[in-house]
């Protein structure tokens, strides 16, 4: 099988925690042909999409990556194309999804690029109001102030952000509220999200990994003393966790929809009783779950992708 990973440059990867790295390693260990490219190397000519890519041998020991010379290849040459570029979800990301959406039916793109464009990580979660905390999407300061009065403490965040960037906790009496909204909305030119603060964040933000809509692993990210955010790169510690009855109910509600939309690898975020995000663009957490659960989720993921490819050709 031939696999292409559309991803960030290899020198930017944190090999101790990167899900793309262990998935590429798994493919190489199985003897598959593995290549990589960055999104800016995607192109289309006469309706046929392609990529200027490099072959990749990926190992557990140094050197982790052995890359070949650049070569222009049609996407149709590959059995699987993995869209593993990290957010932010900007116009460059959307453009890459458009090109990947031109791939022939014989090539499986993971996750489905059309659905990535439709299902924004933060906004799509609002489509499940029974699972989602009270949330306002707006650019108007007066509306956000009224929301803050209704909910005491609130969280403000950009709708297109990632990794906890720009996420702040505030309240109706905060004299910085107006300034914060100005910054996040670019003085009313773009919307931001206001969400009721969920106190359970102090106990942690649970990342649940779903393959083909099925929960396969979970980790709990507990904020440090110096930051309210449950993101690992800002100091949150990772610990083992179990799925609660509420977690399973959330997964049962989302699972069929994720499977229907061709979302092979998704990571959802749950705080307390509430679903806060549905991460469809390069979700992570495989290595952390492996260490805490004693599993090899990358093997399960590649198994599932191989079966999907076989199902297409049968």
What does the model show?
With 314 residues, this protein is α+β, with helices and mostly antiparallel strands. The chain folds into 3 domains: 2-113 and 306-313, Rossmann fold, CATH 3.40.50; 134-197, Dna Ligase, domain 1 (2-Layer Sandwich), CATH 3.30.1490; 201-279, D-amino Acid Aminotransferase, Chain A, domain 1 (2-Layer Sandwich), CATH 3.30.470. It is built from 8 helices and 16 strands. It has helices spanning 19-29, 91-100, 113-118, 141-151, 177-185, 245-260, 286-293, 297-313, and strands at 2-7, 33-37, 42-45, 48-58, 65-74, 80-84, 108-110, 135-138, 153-158, 168-171, 192-196, 205-211, 214-222, 237-239, 265-271, 274-279. The strands form 3 sheets. Strands 1, 2, 3, 4, 5, 6 and 7 form a 7-stranded mixed beta sheet that branches. The protein has a 5-stranded antiparallel beta sheet with strand order 14-13-12-15-16. A hairpin with a 2-residue loop joins strand 15 and strand 16 (274-279). The protein is globular, with a radius of gyration of 20 Å. The two termini are 15 Å apart. The mean pLDDT is 93.
How much is the average pLDDT?
93
What would you say the CATH architecture of the largest domain is?
3-Layer(aba) Sandwich
Order of helices and strands: EHEEEEEHEHEHEEHEEEEHEEHH
Radius of gyration of CA atoms, rounded to a whole number: 20 Å
CATH class of the largest domain: Alpha Beta
End-to-end distance, in Å?
A: 15 Å
Structural class: alpha+beta
Q: How many structural domains can be distinguished in the coordinates?
A: 3
Number of strands: 16
The poorly predicted ranges are none
Shape: globular
Helix content: 25-40%
Main β sheet profile:
7 strands, mixed
Strand content: 25-35%
CATH topology of the largest domain: Rossmann fold
| SS summary, helix count | 8
């Amino acid at each position: 099988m031939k696999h292409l990973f559309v991803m960030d440059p290899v020198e930017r990867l944190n090999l101790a925690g990167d899900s793309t790295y262990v998935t590429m390693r798994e493919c190489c260990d199985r003897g598959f042909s593995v290549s990589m490219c960055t999104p800016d190397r995607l192109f289309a000519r006469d309706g046929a999409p392609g990529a200027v890519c490099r072959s990749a041998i990926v190992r557990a020991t140094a050197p982790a990556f052995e890359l070949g010379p650049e070569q222009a290849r049609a996407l149709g040459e590959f059995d699987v194309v993995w869209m593993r570029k990290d957010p932010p979800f900007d116009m460059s990301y959307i453009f890459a999804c458009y090109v990947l959406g031109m791939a022939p039916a014989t090539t499986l793109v993971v996750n489905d690029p059309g659905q990535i464009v439709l299902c924004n990580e933060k906004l799509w979660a609002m489509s499940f109001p029974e699972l989602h905390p009270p949330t306002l999407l707006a650019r108007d300061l007066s509306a956000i102030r009224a929301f803050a009065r209704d909910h005491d403490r609130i969280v403000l965040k950009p709708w297109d952000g990632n990794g906890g960037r720009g996420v702040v906790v505030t309240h109706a009496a905060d004299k910085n509220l107006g300034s914060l909204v100005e910054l996040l909305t670019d003085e009313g030119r773009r919307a931001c999200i206001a969400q009721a603060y969920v106190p359970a964040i102090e106990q942690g933000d649970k990342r649940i990994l779903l393959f083909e809509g099925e929960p396969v692993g979970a980790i709990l990210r507990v904020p440090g003393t110096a930051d309210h955010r449950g993101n690992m790169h800002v100091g949150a510690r990772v610990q083992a966790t179990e799925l609660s009855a509420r977690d399973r109910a959330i997964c049962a509600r989302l699972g069929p929809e994720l499977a229907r939309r061709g979302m092979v690898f998704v990571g959802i975020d749950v705080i307390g009783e509430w679903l806060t995000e549905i991460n469809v663009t390069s979700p992570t957490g495989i290595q952390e779950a492996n260490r805490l659960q004693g599993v090899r989720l990358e093997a399960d993921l590649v198994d599932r992708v191989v079966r999907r490819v076989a199902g297409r050709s049968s």
